[in-house]
């Protein structure tokens, strides 16, 4: 078991609200549906522990889009990714950041939000592990944030691509890739006040 302190930690759900409507997505959809079950469980435990959950999602080139409209589109019956998006649907307590490119930090308010919440470590999850999750993890590492990337909570187009992304996060970015089932949310150490 790996203990992740509650204070100073945020769960990032990257591109999980996704219609997955592109050629050759069938294999990814099957993987994403299995991943969504693990991620939904992890998110539930994070919420129970008081860890903020932040959706970092593509704007799909829709510069006038809002996140509610994106959720409605991606959970519609016609959306190939509806099961994933429905299982991971955000609540009114969650935060969200729309991103125009691969990294959740590029031209977004994510940096400001994390600083406001006093976040020092992030749990990166989502789709696709070898692109948007990896780019976001890299930018988090560049900002001296400690990384967790539970291997059962991210998927890529192929298992080889996903393994490569996890290897990069673990070896280059010194991230922890323990499965979500082995992550435990714990209290941060409390240091006594001077008068105690």
TrEMBL record:
InterPro entries: Isochorismatase-like_dom, Isochorismatase-like_hydrls, Isochorismatase-like_sf. Residues 9-171 form the Isochorismatase-like domain. CDD domains: cysteine_hydrolases (cd00431). It is an enzyme of class 3 (hydrolase). GO terms for molecular function: hydrolase activity. Transmembrane segments: none annotated. The keyword Hydrolase applies. Keywords: Hydrolase. Its EC number is 3.5.1.110. This is Peroxyureidoacrylate/ureidoacrylate amidohydrolase RutB. It comes from Luteitalea pratensis.
């Amino acid at each position: 078991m790996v203990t992740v302190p509650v204070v100073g930690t945020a769960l990032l759900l990257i591109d999980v609200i996704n219609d997955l409507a592109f050629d050759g997505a069938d294999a990814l959809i099957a993987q994403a549906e299995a991943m969504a079950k693990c991620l939904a469980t992890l998110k539930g435990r994070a919420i129970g522990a008081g860890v903020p959950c932040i959706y970092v999602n593509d704007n799909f080139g829709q510069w006038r889009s809002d996140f509610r409209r994106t959720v409605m589109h991606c959970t519609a019956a016609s959306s190939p990714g509806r099961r994933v998006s429905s299982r991971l649907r955000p609540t009114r307590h969650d935060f969200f950041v729309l991103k125009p490119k691969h990294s959740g930090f590029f031209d977004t308010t994510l940096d400001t939000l994390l600083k406001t919440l006093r976040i020092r470590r992030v749990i990166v999850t989502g789709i696709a592990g070898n692109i948007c999750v990896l780019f976001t993890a890299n930018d988090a590492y560049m900002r001296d944030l400690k990384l967790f990337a539970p291997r059962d909570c991210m998927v890529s187009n192929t298992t080889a691509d996903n393994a490569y992304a996890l290897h990069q996060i673990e070896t280059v970015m010194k991230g922890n890739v323990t499965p979500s089932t082995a992550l435990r949310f714990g209290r941060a150490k409390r240091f006594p006040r001077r008068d105690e």
